[in-house]
Amino acid sequence: MKEPDMRKIRRSMEKTLDHRRYEHTLGVAYTAAALAMRYGADVNNALLAGMLHDCAKCLSNEKRISICEKHNIAISPAEAKNPFLLHAKVGSFLAMKKYGVTDRDVINAILNHTTGRPGMSLLEKIIWVADYIEPGRRQAPRLAQIRKLAFEDLDRALVTALEDTLDYLKGGNMEIDSMTQKTYDYYKDGGKL
Ligand code: DGI
Ligand code: FE
Ligand code: FE
Q1: Closest C-alpha residue for ligand 1 atom 6
Q2: Residues in the chain with pLDDT < 50?
């Protein structure tokens, strides 16, 4: 398959995502590119993963579930209860099958962009953090602090944002995917198993 064409992918995102989500996507792509420059990751991979990370966000839950069923993609109990979580898994699948992404690291960055995972690669961390701090985000507490920290110490920015995410989920009585908790526990202790 041909290498993914960024201009085509951007146009496709503009068509398939709603306006707010498309603006968010551009914010994540460019923030991820800036973080890649700062930390010496591949800038094009950061752009590509950022551009595609929410590509399955504007599908219905029914559609996400049917894609999983059709392609034998396992649905965890947490995902069955909160099918919006599936946008990461289905997004990584579409990145491969529809958008021609072959780079494992890019696919993983999309796959793990919501819950994270212990032992993330540099690119996975960059996408997770970029998703949290992109300029269009408004809500999160400590956002200004985490934005600054992201360019000073990526791991500390990640832990701080994970901590606030867990607090937010607990405060709203939302179900915490065990992977989100595991990711936090792992990085809180300095990122070693
Ligand atoms: O798709 P985005 O909104 O850009 O960002 P995302 O994919 O990181 O999703 C963010 C939302 O997902 C945010 O409201 C927190 C929520 N989230 C993250 N981990 C979990 C979670 N929601 C539940 N229910 N359980 C989790 O473990
Ligand atoms: Fe997302
Ligand atoms: Fe996002």
Answers
A1: 114
A2: none
